[in-house]
Amino acid sequence: MNLTIEHVARTALIGVGATAAMDLWLALLGRLGVATLDFALLGRWVGHWPRGVFLHASIGKAAPVRGELALGWLTHYASGVAFAAVLVALFGLEWTRTPSLVPALAVGLATVAAPWLLMQPAMGAGIAASKTPAPARNRARSLANHAVFGLGLYLSALLLAWISR
User: Fold this and answer.
1) How far is CA 81 from CA 65, 66, 107, 134, 152, in A?
2) What pLDDT is recorded for position 21?
3) Where are the domains of the chain?
């Protein structure tokens, strides 16, 4: 694949935009009293990697890591850009110029595999939140959050396409 500056820029902007859309959604949920991911815990998990620790019985009980909140936010946005790169790799640069909803929503929903199969088990919550007090509710929240991310991929690409005309 021949990556151009346009390719990289569009992918990064779409990923950042979609992640910001998800953050707005999470902020709304927080205002409504719904618990959402504490990005410091994400940073704590990633912060233990250089020490060779990838799995935790409970990430909340793991030793704090210096700068974990900033590291969590950085990881969150880097993941959003990486997922946007998957979308663009699958559907091409042309999709970024004339975006459609279904590919973005499909990729957004597929990204729920990351928390279900990687993050939650590694942080002590089990596969697809199976070790949490309310697994079904937590799975539904994850699906909704990632659907919003998918919608954010589409809306960010649509805005970028409109601006670049």
Assistant:
1) 24, 24, 12, 30, 12
2) 98
3) 5-36+73-163
pLDDT given for residue 165 in this prediction: 86
d(CA 88, CA 97): 11
Neighbours of 49 (CB within 10 A): 11
Q: What is the reported pLDDT for 37? A: 86
> Which is it for the CA torsion 118, 119, 120, 121, positive or negative?
positive
- pLDDT for the residue 3: 75
pTM of the model: 0.94
The contacts of residue 144 (CB under 8 Å, 6+ apart) are none
Angstrom distance (rounded) from CA 55 to CA 26: 25
Rounded Cα–Cα distance for residues 77 and 16 (Å): 6
Residue 24 clears pLDDT 60, i.e. is over it: yes
